[in-house]
Task: structure prediction
Amino acid sequence: MLIFLHTNATAAERAELRHALAAEGARGPLGALPIGAGDVIGVDAAAISELAKNRIAHLPAVNHIIPIKTAYKLAHIAANPAGTRVKVGNVVFGSRGMPPVIAGPCSVENEEQIIEAAKAAKTSGAVMLRGGAFKPRTSPYTFQGLGPQGLRMLARAREITGLPVVTEVMEPGMVDAVAAFADMLQIGARNMQNYSLLIAAGHSGKPILLKRGPSSTLDEWLSAAEYILAAGNPNVVLCERGLRGFDNHTRNIFDVTAIPALHSLTHLPIVADPSHGTGKRSFVAPMALASAAAGADGLILEMHPRPDEAMSDADQTISPETLRDIVQKIHAMHIALGRPTEDEISDAATLPIAQEPLSYVFPE
Amino acid sequence: MLIFLHTNATAAERAELRHALAAEGARGPLGALPIGAGDVIGVDAAAISELAKNRIAHLPAVNHIIPIKTAYKLAHIAANPAGTRVKVGNVVFGSRGMPPVIAGPCSVENEEQIIEAAKAAKTSGAVMLRGGAFKPRTSPYTFQGLGPQGLRMLARAREITGLPVVTEVMEPGMVDAVAAFADMLQIGARNMQNYSLLIAAGHSGKPILLKRGPSSTLDEWLSAAEYILAAGNPNVVLCERGLRGFDNHTRNIFDVTAIPALHSLTHLPIVADPSHGTGKRSFVAPMALASAAAGADGLILEMHPRPDEAMSDADQTISPETLRDIVQKIHAMHIALGRPTEDEISDAATLPIAQEPLSYVFPE
Amino acid sequence: MLIFLHTNATAAERAELRHALAAEGARGPLGALPIGAGDVIGVDAAAISELAKNRIAHLPAVNHIIPIKTAYKLAHIAANPAGTRVKVGNVVFGSRGMPPVIAGPCSVENEEQIIEAAKAAKTSGAVMLRGGAFKPRTSPYTFQGLGPQGLRMLARAREITGLPVVTEVMEPGMVDAVAAFADMLQIGARNMQNYSLLIAAGHSGKPILLKRGPSSTLDEWLSAAEYILAAGNPNVVLCERGLRGFDNHTRNIFDVTAIPALHSLTHLPIVADPSHGTGKRSFVAPMALASAAAGADGLILEMHPRPDEAMSDADQTISPETLRDIVQKIHAMHIALGRPTEDEISDAATLPIAQEPLSYVFPE
Amino acid sequence: MLIFLHTNATAAERAELRHALAAEGARGPLGALPIGAGDVIGVDAAAISELAKNRIAHLPAVNHIIPIKTAYKLAHIAANPAGTRVKVGNVVFGSRGMPPVIAGPCSVENEEQIIEAAKAAKTSGAVMLRGGAFKPRTSPYTFQGLGPQGLRMLARAREITGLPVVTEVMEPGMVDAVAAFADMLQIGARNMQNYSLLIAAGHSGKPILLKRGPSSTLDEWLSAAEYILAAGNPNVVLCERGLRGFDNHTRNIFDVTAIPALHSLTHLPIVADPSHGTGKRSFVAPMALASAAAGADGLILEMHPRPDEAMSDADQTISPETLRDIVQKIHAMHIALGRPTEDEISDAATLPIAQEPLSYVFPE
Result:
């Protein structure tokens, strides 16, 4: 169930509520997440009696309660039916306005390359920069990224272009180091159910781009997001990037329907990654348009100044010219479909992380 | 390999060519398909020597030869790089103009229902009517369609509205009976590799809507189309309708990327079926837009005057109002993307079936 | 629901029952199948009131009723909890004794080949011969089988070796022709939901080997079997042959767990096909043993006197020596597991087809 | 390529080799793994010229070189064609003798439960204890394990029964803590491509049980194993536990064919987990037998003294009685198949971790 708190609930009233929940056997994190109209607590109510629920509903801190049967609670659309906006620098995901486009190379290769790529991304209409410093690679013998050096180069590219930066983090112990440089942390498909990493990402308070695992159900994906939310971080953006498939004409099966399906299940914004979704350069543009038409709240595209020279994922990397064409077409389509333009969208702010630290620790 | 014939090749020259191919051990149908610039013959050249190929290339009937390594030949894009247009009544698939929308109920239920549905489809902007008379149903205990009665009702709805009709045929022995009433024959997903049915559909000469099997690769699908083409029928339209998936929020995984992927592999038009692709009414509109944005040459949508009362597939059936909204948005999007409007498209004609009957028989 | 008839129910009492069912709106075939302890009728009871069910339960023809909620009824284990034995010549599937092994080449290539193969199969311990005369091939340009000639060659091989023959039939119009030569009809994976073919196979009365479609659920598969059963033919054997997969080290994902899963759902015997299931010669022996250990009621193996020369499926075809080794090991394993040997199994007879013709026709 | 070192290669000669490789641009870890007949180095030779390879082949440290094109090198069967034996306490995986059975509850619930389970496992024929202290759970609101307390309880159960213990570790920072209590570390399916965790597991030197990701190819799985091997730890056992499926009668698709397929690709032992593979208690026994028949080098089974009371995975948990029956049948089957009994297997020893530390660090 979801417990919505009164906006003026005092610290003592909140503590009273948490104690009451713990006494009833509620399991999991019991801190309040500042999302939607006020602070919300997610609780697995399976073990709590109707009587106890009634008692809890009448505690002073509680505004109202909504029963939720899914495994995820805070990620459920009922927690914030108006939709959550996640702000990264001056970029807003979930505004329902013109969808922001993130672009950049698969890997940061050297300072010249990432700066050139960032400039090309900006000129072509992208509003945010992507680039891998730590690369999860199937084989230990392939290029694993430039690591900390790459982070510094990304920061330099941001300094020059003003574009906020998203980059991947691969282990809990590196979250702080990456968060020191990046504006948004990406959790990759291979790590979607790396729960230690999700919790660390939650504690960081940084906006998180959570990619879908290659054979993950929507419920599993939203439950993974719940780990981040439940750790106190409301700034989660989901990213569809394709499912394990059986046809060698594409790298993955790009599940575009996940976009409207998620919009019916969750308040979190959904970004589409047609680069990994298709794995082929010539399919990126049509599938970027398809994603936008289906209602994506943003796009993330692999772009390189000279795609054929990219050190990784060259097959699916587009040129700045293709990027510009995609951005222009998405804008034209957006207007033709009568969707709101950016001017009509009111200001959004990065959501604060939970006031009470929502730790998730094992009993000693 | 593909053998392109001179347009003025005589019957004797054509016969000479066929004999030469047979003598070299070429297997399969060796008739010429009137597709693209002239007649074309598809041949599996694996067993033919380079010397023999050279000899064949110099026969009087032969204009030029293009080597093709895929299992399908006539369906390969090289057979007609300009793209094939399939005409059904006055509806054209593959024109690259405004994509035609087919709409109608899952099943023909009675005469009033199908006539009402046809009128609603027309008013809402659809240009063709769908409706099942013979229904392939998972269980023998569920409604199997009205059969021949349903065909007559479809013909009556066409008479009243002028909309051409597509309906499913399920066995070779019924092809003539269904072709007598319908303007286009649908071969369903379950029958995609029902080769006897494909060959019979080929011999019918009617335009064919060939749905993709639920776990079929693109190559398998194009090879299934090849059976129809090789039987002499160039009027094939492919229909993506979703893959077997693992998530219960959608009925199938709707493979939108198949649209641009097929456009890179084949000259045949591709229609999208977001009704079966998603299985949920509220996902049909966004995925219809996504399909059109990805370049679909048409859409087929389950629509019922009162969706909740539909005898089959009610969950995925939209209302006439939703249909109208989809058609309008697709048109607006088409223009915004700078794609050609119908006026710019030159006339298309239904392609003739092959002059020489392309039979596919077993030696007695 | 399943309606079990009294063994001595008269024709008039049976007719009374059928009329009562039809009057209550029961849909589908309403003939009685001679399976299990007596004749059984399968009915979709969703539309029938509790009152009407009670009335039907007290009709003179009715012994007792068991409610069944699955889409399939006659295939449900409740229809014959002791398990159905399907007899083909003197071979019995479902006896729970030593599992019979079917072996032979993918395709009948010529008379010498099939006779040599049949002799090798017999010598190596197989008790039944397989071989394709009509071959469903992905591409129209590949060898499509010898057709009717192949059937005659199979009959000749049976005459010489005494081994009963199973071969594939691909269309309803060919069922009688193939049934005239074969002892058991195979319906291939591509045709699992070719309902016209299933019904024709049902009317033939011949034992049917029904392969699983490459992405079929167990419920869909049993519902396909239900079409055959509901058409009056109780002699159905299921055959697991692998699911569409994503790994190129095997041709399919061989779903061995389907064997115990089906044993919990249905009374029909289950045969395993590790040749198609794995697609690789060296995996056939271990997976044949695995299938037998999991409880398979038989095996079907592609074997060729000279595997590397096989015209089709050479990669997955084993030698007579490997076949002999497999049969010996399966026998040794069977005894070691304390399973009953053939001597302990009482006589089985081919089940009669339904006395009342169970037609499945559309209303005119 | 694989570089096999002379057994008496000196430290200086080894250093010379590593420098030569680095100078040629060889990427990745270049330490020698003590596996097979002697120490082996895995190198991605794509960037190394034939001339350079020849030069390297003649360095004093080098015995011989085998070219390997797969993404994994040290995991390739060519690195140790005789097969690697992994020893955990006195249990040996990969001996080709009687396959060891690991059993125990999904979760450690309390000290009494785990001790009772360990005793029941031992009495029933299991030789190793499993039990989760840190549980990766889809939802943050479900029981997450007892954590460090659970580890101490496992150690107590080992002390009493003598059974070695395997338990899961979920993050790099916890590897040392878990390794202090456990005899073997499990890396779960969700973490198969958690590369930081794989490298930490490699550095630990402990035997590792590496589960397959739910949609992982065999090549991806072996490449994940390669991360552990390349970090210096040769003691890796693979564990098949089922693939993401689409049928609700089983939890996963249990890929038994992976067992013989892996035996053809790698020298590492393969253990089967029919509990997670099937997800249903009644399918565990037949699929345990199937796995053993297919050649599994061991089994891991969820067993609880009172299965219905298990706090997690109760549906797939067997009783001690079922465990005993499985062990007895596997032994009987093993002998019937003529496979070697334990007596015939020579002594195995835990392989040492690499002498030179094989670190995998990013350049600063």
